Amino acid sequence: MKARVHVMLKNGVLDPQGEAVRHALGAMGFDSVEGVRQGKVIDLDLAEGTTKDQVAEMCEKLLANTVIESYEIELG
Amino acid sequence: MRAAVITFPGSNADRDLAVAFEQAGFDVTMVWHKDSDLPSGVDIVGVPGGFSFGDYLRCGAIAAQSHITAAMIAHAERGGYVLGICNGFQILTETGVLPGALLRNAGLKFISKPCGLKVTTTDSAFTGGYEAGQEISIPVAHHDGNYFADADTLKALEDQDRIAFTYTENPNGSAGDIAGILSENRRVLGMMPHPERACDTGHGGSDGTALFRALSGVLTPA
What we know:
- Chain A is built from 2 helices and 3 strands; from the N terminus they run βαβαβ.
- Chain A has 76 residues and is an alpha+beta fold.
- Chain B starts with a strand and ends with a helix.
- Chain B: One of its GO terms (molecular function) is glutaminase activity.
- Chain B: Pathway: Purine metabolism; IMP biosynthesis via de novo pathway; 5-amino-1-(5-phospho-D-ribosyl)imidazole from N(2)-formyl-N(1)-(5-phospho-D-ribosyl)glycinamide: step 1/2.
């Protein structure tokens, strides 16, 4: 089985990389872009039967730093 | 006085830190990240700068899970002294030994240059050798030194006089110009600038010497 973890900086935490991408898109003429947030996608190959709680524990302990980041888990 | 300096794969300031400790009179033992115990009788653990585990995932995230890091945390919880510099500061925040986190520099560039620091508190074993408010010059070399903490944490750091150093000209966007902070018991210091790279006139400055000398003075058995 597989799981996909999305890790994003929390709202309110400045994302200078997202801001640089937003600036570049604006400079390229994409005037409709009002904001960009950049995050990470982590794909996990897991043994059958791994639970969402176990993936959440991986997120809490390593994959995300919950001081600055939030995460979402998709099991698939 | 005994110091242990941890080496992770990708550490690059571990030997400089050992030399700075030695010059201040410490017996220094290098410990490898896979070791599970610190040498007995260690007074202070140095967590050095560098790029542990290639900065993969987040700076310091993987080093925070190393065997020796668990021993470092136990040492801190027993009331032992810990000095984390640059990547070492990032590791200390990743473990939760110190609050907050280090984000990508606001200007997105890697910054390597001497920075002016203000000594914000002299009430610690690390900063007791400086004058309150003294301005010193210490080099920084980092890509992720932008200190972040929520408003409550920043207020607590200020109220408890735990901000050790602030930048005189903020190079990286750090909240409150913070360059280094102390733990609640004031025995753990994390800082982004490199005092071990300012310990010899050959370094272009020696303003870091007072930090290591003050430490050796405090930790010397009376």
